[in-house]
Amino acid sequence: MSTRELWPQQVMLHARSGALALGWADLGEQLLSGPRLRAACRCAGCEQGRRHGQPPQPDAAVRLERIDPVGEFGLQLHFSDGHERGLFPWAYLRELALETGNGIERTFVDK
User: Fold this and answer.
1) pLDDT digits over 42-88, tens only?
2) Which residues contact 79 (CB under 8 A, 6 or more apart)?
3) Helix/strand/coil for 70
4) Please, which residues have CB within 8 angstroms of residue 29's CB and are 6 or more apart in sequence?
5) Pairing between strand 19-24 and 28-32?
6) Contact 34, 19 (CB under 8 A)
7) Coil, strand, or helix at residue 74?
8) Cα distance between residue 6 and residue 89, in whole Å
């Protein structure tokens, strides 16, 4: 699979739900909720918390408020709880999308 194939064809922030919709050539549209994305953040602070047994535990009401492209790399996500340090590469967003199955998101907290 080429790097280009790892990029979504469509990226949309759903303002009402605060979810990220990604349209993939081979996966179709996948929705990732604000809480799921916030829990999956891999910024230095969130990773340090995980190493110390304190992974991010976002409130179920946290929403994605803004998305900013980071070149061809991926997205910077801005959440309603003020968190905005995590960069989400396309390959990582694809991995999260694959976890959602047939567009139905599983629980946002990794077990």
Assistant:
1) 999 999 999 999 999 999 999 999 999 998 899 999 999 999 998 99
2) 34, 37, 38, 58, 62, 63, 64, 65
3) strand
4) 10, 21, 22, 23, 103
5) antiparallel
6) yes
7) strand
8) 10
Residues 41 and 33 sit within 8 Å (Cβ to Cβ) = no
Answer whether residue 8 shows pLDDT above 90.
yes
pTM: 0.85
If we measure between CA atoms, which residue out of 5, 33, 35 comes closest to residue 21? 33
- Is residue 108 over pLDDT 60? no
Distance CA 44, CA 101 (A): 28
Buried b / exposed e over 90-107, threshold 16 CB at 10 Å, is bebbbebbeebeeeebee
